[in-house]
Design a protein that fits this description.
The protein is of the alpha+beta class. The chain is built from 8 helices and 15 strands. The strands form 3 sheets. Strands 4, 5, 6, 7, 8, 9, 12, 13, 14 and 15 form a 10-stranded mixed beta sheet that branches.
C-alpha cells in the first residue's frame, strides 16, 4: 500500500487524470479498473474518477510494491551525460517558481517538436532540477516556445500555480516579448506596425506553412523599429515587439516588407544565405528573443529580463 499526500502542484485535477500521470505505464481503462475494485481511497473512502483532488487529500493506493513499480517505471528518467546538460551560463533568472533560459540556436525546446534524438531544452531543465522539486505528477513546463534556430529567452514554470498564471497572462497578451533580428537591407520606415493577417497551411509541402492572407486569416501585429543600419554595408538590426503570438510571425512579416531575417531558409531565397555563410560563417536565422516583460506569478510585480546576444549575432555587429 502507498500513502500519498496531495500538495499544491498536484491539486485541482481529476482523480483519474492524476492517477494516469502517477502511473504512466497504465492505461486509462486499468486506472478505472483499479478504482472500481476499491484499490484507491481518498481520505479513507472511494471517490468517483471525476473527483477533483484537493490540497491535503490523502490518497491510499492498494497495490503491491512490485505492481506499483511496474506501473510507475519511467525509462526516460535517466540523467544524461554532461555534454547534454544545461549550461548555467544560459540561466537568465531563477527562483522557486520560475526559471528563465537564454536558449542557444539549434536546440529544440520540446522533444515532440521534431523527429530527432537530440536532447531538448525541457529535458535539460528536468536534468538540471533533478531531485530539487517535490511533486507526484507535475514537471517544470514551458510557458511558450521559439523556433529551433532562434535563440533567446524562454520562460519555464517550476510550479503548477506559476504555469497556470503565466499561461493565462500569455493568452491575454499581458506578457511582452521583444526580439532582435538582423535583416537584409533597410525598411522604408524606421518604425512601423505591420498588421498583415496570416494564414497557417496545415501539412504544407511545396508551399510555405505561414502566408500573408487577407481572407482566411488570423490577426497578427508586429511593432518594429530600426536600431542600426549599414551593418556590413547591407544589413540592419531591427527590434520587434509582438502584439500577437503567431507561428513564424516575425519572419513572415519582415519578409513581406522586403527585409527578411538573414539566413531564413523558409521565407527567402538561398543566394543571400550562401553569401552570409561564406563571408560571415552564418548558419542559422539571425533572430534572438532578447527581452521579456511579465508579472511574477508569486510576487505579482512587473519583471523585465534581457538575454545577451549569442556569438554569431554578436560578431555580425
Amino acid at each position: 500500500m502507498k500513502l500519498l499526500k496531495i500538495t499544491e502542484n498536484d491539486a485541482n485535477q481529476r482523480l483519474d487524470k492524476f492517477l494516469k500521470k502517477l502511473l504512466p505505464n497504465s492505461s486509462l481503462s486499468l486506472v478505472y479498473k483499479i478504482n472500481r475494485k476499491n484499490k484507491i481511497k481518498v481520505n479513507g473512502k472511494r471517490e468517483d474518477n471525476e473527483y477533483k483532488i484537493q490540497i491535503g487529500d490523502e490518497i491510499k493506493i492498494f497495490l503491491s510494491d512490485s505492481e506499483f513499480d511496474v506501473l510507475t517505471e519511467n525509462k526516460e528518467l535517466v540523467r544524461r551525460e554532461s555534454s547534454s546538460q544545461l549550461s548555467t551560463d544560459d540561466i537568465v533568472y531563477e527562483d522557486s517558481s520560475i526559471l528563465v533560459i537564454n536558449k542557444s540556436p539549434w536546440i529544440i525546446v520540446h522533444p515532440w517538436d521534431f523527429k530527432t534524438k537530440d536532447i531538448s531544452l525541457i529535458q535539460q531543465v528536468h536534468d538540471y532540477l533533478w531531485g530539487k522539486l517535490n511533486s507526484l505528477t507535475f514537471k517544470p513546463s514551458l510557458v511558450h516556445r521559439i523556433d529551433k534556430d532562434t535563440s533567446g529567452i524562454i520562460l519555464i514554470a517550476k510550479t503548477k500555480m506559476s504555469l497556470d498564471f503565466l499561461l493565462k497572462d500569455l493568452q491575454s497578451n499581458k506578457i511582452e516579448k521583444y526580439y532582435l533580428a538582423i535583416v537584409l537591407w533597410e525598411p522604408e520606415k524606421d518604425s512601423w506596425i505591420i498588421d498583415k493577417k496570416l494564414l497557417r497551411i496545415e501539412n504544407a509541402k511545396a508551399e510555405n506553412k505561414i502566408q500573408v492572407n487577407e481572407e482566411d486569416w488570423q490577426k497578427a501585429i508586429t511593432h518594429y523599429k530600426v536600431i542600426q543600419k549599414n551593418i556590413k554595408w547591407k544589413y540592419s538590426l531591427i527590434e520587434c515587439k509582438l502584439e500577437t503570438w503567431r507561428m513564424h510571425q516575425i519572419r513572415v512579416h519582415l519578409a513581406s516588407i522586403w527585409c527578411p531575417v538573414l539566413w531564413d531558409k523558409t521565407y527567402w531565397n538561398s543566394s543571400e544565405n550562401s553569401f552570409a555563410k561564406i563571408n560571415y560563417w552564418i548558419q542559422r536565422q539571425l533572430l534572438h528573443a532578447y527581452k521579456v516583460v511579465f508579472t511574477h506569478p508569486e510576487k505579482r510585480t512587473k519583471i523585465t529580463l534581457e538575454a545577451r546576444l549569442k556569438d554569431d549575432m554578436k560578431s555580425m555587429m
